[in-house]
């Protein structure tokens, strides 16, 4: 692809986002950046959340990871459905009843200020790393695919992407993101469909033949019943449930969009419809994963292996797109990466800004001009943190989606434990010990995980979040106040 065409695509795409931003920036108030004036259409929010829920990580990691883990991720997807039901019928009504902007305010109402700050701080740490790793993969793809050939340093690419996101979100924040993410979700799904059609045509398959080839391939295994495996069915299913509750229902970046809907009834519809959208999209990605390995086998494409496992699974889809799918496939992939990057990172940056502004800067009780200054200052700080985390992890390899879920197990586990204790018990705690209890639970989870792997060859896998949350609940019971 020529550099001229590349930059024309980027400029055209960004111009479209700026037009939407200008349209949505009218009639803004003090809280528009954070709550979107609570007038978002629920169906639009549900569709737009696909982009945030998928991201560039899912775009390349879910299909690529099929080579090492077959279709076992489907077990995880099955668990997410139950998680979304819990979010729709338990968490969403509570958030609307309390009219929350930062969802961690619930912890203040239920327990007190120290617990509130602890929960929010764990979110800030987890979301910062999770969003930065998603951004990292996107930038790596853009560098490998396009900008390295133009001799543009990767740190410049990082800065430019962050600036572009800031330009179209800094005024109206979540109100703009609801609309831009819907557009970007459409582009993202279109990319996968174009890629599937390209492979089908190249291999000379009909749709029926392509489906049969996927179903009968050795990688097309849905369930793993080995209890020692990290991808065991029960571990994946329960992890899917808990991680969905934690990374969606207890995650400011995901729930902030839902809370821009007018009322709790529409918000429930939003969550339930979104759960269908995201499960369908991720299942489609898995089938596509088998297809790209079939394509690689048919074309004699060698993929590096180490100890019987593929090394850089995240690189397979970009490799095929850039060198085998032709110009249309390359353009579609570029748009897909840009769309998934902006759709996932813009919401995370807005959520981090919201959580820190409400939970630590008390922006809700500040005068008008002070609110604006606080928001701009925090927004700048969030972008700087993102930049440095991406730089720190630039040399990492492997399936980044596994790294994100592993980090989430240690950082969202305490949040999940705090909420479960608040929702399903009536205890009060000696609050000064809450931070210590949460940190101790995360550390013990890490050591238990290492011990079980080394001593029994038993991998918790994504179940780290369950162990972490359970330990958090137990430690909270230890520090509860006497009745």
Question: What this model shows, in words?
Answer:
It is a single chain. The chain is mainly α and 483 residues long. The chain has one domain: Up-down Bundle (Sodium/glucose cotransporter). 75% of the residues lie in helices and 1% in strands. The chain has helices at residues 3-24, 32-35, 42-69, 73-97, 105-110, 113-147, 154-169, 174-203, 207-215, 233-249, 252-258, 264-298, 316-323, 326-359, 368-392, 400-424, 434-456, 464-478, and strands at residues 305-306, 309-310. It has a two-stranded antiparallel sheet. The radius of gyration is 22 Å and the shape is globular.
Using brief descriptors, characterize the structure shown:
single chain; 483 residues; mainly alpha; Sodium/glucose cotransporter; two-stranded antiparallel ribbon; 18 helices; 2 strands
**Main pleated sheet:** 2 strands, antiparallel
Number of domains: 1
Number of strands: 2
CATH A-level architecture: Up-down Bundle
Mean pLDDT: 84
The CATH topology turns out to be Sodium/glucose cotransporter
The spatial strand order of the largest sheet comes to: 1-2
The fourth-level CATH homologous superfamily is Sodium/glucose cotransporter
Q: Helix and strand succession?
A: HHHHHHHHHHHHEEHHHHHH
Structural class: mainly alpha
Proportion of residues in β-strands? under 5%
